């Protein structure tokens, strides 16, 4: 793919998925690696065509010996393009042992992006995930167990904890990105941890996905990406139906804070798919998220409705109880 064709493809993808609006202030997350450097340069080429005002955001995680060199490299790119750059340094990342290091670093970046978004009055953050990342994520979720929602994997436009994230590179392969950089004669930083197979994603990338591509189907990456896109379309449709049903079944009177009451008779008549999603909507309304709510929990609620007597309980994470009353299915948070 020629340089012009690559950039044109990204512009078309951005328009078709409505990733940007004219006048958007966009933070571009730039690590210094190939993907983020290519994204920055591509958006820089398109800034007048798409009407964007660009800012560079970089987090120095201090997790590698080369981290300071990466920071200097990003600052040099910002200077060469005359773009404002904002740097944050994660000083004590290894000392916090809650969750995996990769997940903690991700949360730290998102918090930095969120604060910076408010500071510069920007509208969204652009990240450089591509089709290879999408395929890897689909495989990881299949292996760990997932449903339709999880199969969507990485989405082109999504709100994460109030932060609008867009991913213009989801239409292209890693090889397209590297070719674009080579044609532009642009340098980038190499992250030595990308080949460390102690990280689960790297094991998938260099092991399973490589074998699937070499031994089974050379088009496995586009195929898995297509699966994610198809799942996202189906999920969006089901979600629309579930939201409509949820509004119809939810009772407004006599309901205390931290509690959702659904009409039990009407709820039982709904398709199991809609019932499951309405449970998640109720949990989301009470807790603000659905983390740790698994299919097993949802199935327990189904069993509660069909097989157990009135006033029976199901205990959920986050201090939630589900009660089957005579007329209502009640989700409530313990006081």
Task: Pick out its properties.
alpha/beta; Rossmann fold; 335 residues; 12 helices; elongated
Structure report:
The protein is an alpha/beta fold and 335 residues long. The chain folds into two domains: 228 residues, 3-Layer(aba) Sandwich (Rossmann fold), CATH 3.40.50.620; 84 residues, Uridine Diphospho-n-acetylenolpyruvylglucosamine Reductase, domain 3 (2-Layer Sandwich). It has twelve helices and ten strands. Strands 3-2-1-4-6-5 form a six-stranded mixed β-sheet, sandwiched between helices. Strand 8 and strand 9 form a beta hairpin. The longest helix has 30 residues. The radius of gyration is 23 Å and the shape is elongated.
Could you give the topology of this structure?
Blueprint: H1 3-16, E1 25-29, H2 34-50, E2 53-60, H3 67-81, E3 85-89, H4 101-120, E4 124-126, H5 131-144, H6 148-151, E5 157-160, E6 163-166, H7 174-184, H8 200-216, H9 220-249, E7 259-263, H10 264-269, H11 272-287, H12 295-307, E8 313-316, E9 320-324, E10 328-333
Parallel strand pairs: 1-2, 1-4, 2-3, 4-6
Antiparallel strand pairs: 5-6, 7-10, 8-9, 9-10
Helix pairs in contact: 2-7, 5-8, 5-9, 9-11
